[in-house]
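user:
I keep going back and forth on a fold encoding question. Separate attempts, laid side by side, tell us more than any discussion would. Would you put together a sequence-and-structure record for a protein of your own picking? Write it directly below this note and I will take it from there.

assistant:
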Amino acid sequence: MSLQKCGLNMNSDLKELQPHGTLDFPCAGYEETYTDRISDEIPWHWHEELEIIYLKKGSLKLQVPSKEYIMNAGELAVINTNVLHYATAMPYCELQSLVFS
């Protein structure tokens, strides 16, 4: 599995519509670099798949509706299915994520 760039495609309910993987291999891996620019925010969204985020470099503010977390290089976060979440770099980060059913 190669890592790909992740672009969010959401509906009006903030559900991410991008398929992750295939029926035979229901997992996709992503790698991305973010800054604290507004255009680099990971907007509020949710998806039916489980997501694991690993922060390679920098810092990231990760939010769910009831809590805010500051992630630093070397840490990971697990976002459960159907959980609304948002993230922004502080001020820069490189991350990898796995999204799977």
